[in-house]
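ok so i was messing around last nite and threw this chain in just to see what happens. nothing serious, just curious
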Amino acid sequence: MENPLLVMQRCLMRPAILLAIWSASFGFSPLLTREIQQNSAPAAVTRACSANPVLGSSGKNKQAHKTKHPLPPQPLPACVEVKGEAMEIQETLQAAVRDLKWQVFENHASEDSWTFVRSLNVEELRKYADTKVLLEPVEFEYGKAALLVRTTDIGQGFVRVQISAQIQGEGKSADAVVKQPVTSWPLRSKGTLEQELIAQLQSRYKHLE
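result:
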């Protein structure tokens, strides 16, 4: 008669042997399969824009138009498409701005847009705007950037997010021959400020190649 203890040991070992054979054959375990299934749940994603139409003026930089210096041409808006709701995306950007501790004012939000003005010191002004394109030397003291965030539902759960900035420097002419009485100088955005906000979105949403 076979030893009952040996019979019990063989019964206990059989599932483990079968599991080892199954894992070796298919290259993964049931535990790994469950983990993959859990991690494969749909996640918010971002992708490159399929189109990038030019945005209208945010209306925050009207004072610059009163100077004798015409506004330089602005770059195209920074653009990204995000899977999600427009208001949720706006709230995500607003939270990012708070986290960055930007000094902002004149906040206005609607269902499809958000406008605000950010104060810039001299270093930030040089970082975000092209201050070397003016016809005369200017000693800048500070500046401000009027930002427009536009959200457009493009279907299939995606929202196109476009961000543009109009930058204005405040300072005095340093021209030794003819000093202009102007103190406000419209400047061309380098696109860096807009891309910083796009990067904040991409860091909070999974990127889709």
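not much to say yet. The mean pLDDT is 77.
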